[in-house]
């Protein structure tokens, strides 16, 4: 599955903290943490955002600590995938000699029906610039509300028309939300014949998409949304391969 790239705005704030005199003994505190401190949900993009926080405490010999965030997104029932967002994927560096270092990451305009988390990398450096230690933590998720479409191919047929073959592909939206307009790629015997566009489908609606192509000798594959631009509840049922239909 190709990775869907979304426009995600963000704001980053790095905080270097000195442990207070009343802090618990260092041995009882985790070396590194990644948390979601705010998960805002709403009907408009401006109301859908998450605030994550990563923190590290120094180990013996530490001069500076570094922290880097990667944002991960899960759409519907899929797996978490790393997605690009402005300002992520860069190392945030502490001041020299601090005992604790925390970075707060705010990600704006989250997509409906998706879950978000951060994968955080940590490094500890001595005063000579040598790495003393590395770690990685995954934060809890921030799930946004909303329902999604789910497009799937339910039937592929064919008949001869004036010396060519006309393929008919039935596309069904089994999701709970309307889909956006997208395309369907039809391959005959392994070669893509055409990628026609078709309009939005309401929840529960079926659309028949026609493609003219050569006669089939082996198999046909129909793939909805081949460029993976439509967020769906299930991204794993967009393609259907069948033996050559009766022509």
Name some characteristics of this structure:
single chain, 247 residues, mainly beta, Immunoglobulin-like, 6-stranded antiparallel beta sheet, 5-stranded antiparallel beta sheet, 18 strands, disordered N terminus
Structural features, described:
- The protein is mostly beta strands and 247 residues long.
- It folds into 2 domains: 9-143, Immunoglobulin-like (Sandwich); 151-243, Immunoglobulins (Immunoglobulin-like, Sandwich), CATH 2.60.40.
- The protein is built from no helices and 18 strands.
- It has strands at residues 9-17, 32-40, 49-57, 64-75, 81-82, 91-93, 100-108, 114-125, 131-138, 142-143, 151-161, 164-173, 182-188, 191-194, 197-198, 206-213, 219-224, 239-243.
- Strands 4, 5, 6, 8, 9 and 10 form a 6-stranded antiparallel beta sheet that branches. Strands 13, 14, 15, 17 and 18 form a 5-stranded antiparallel beta sheet that branches. Strands 1-7-3-2 form a 4-stranded antiparallel beta sheet, with no helix packed on it.
- The protein is elongated, with a radius of gyration of 25 Å.
- Residues 1-7 and 9-24 have low confidence and may be disordered.
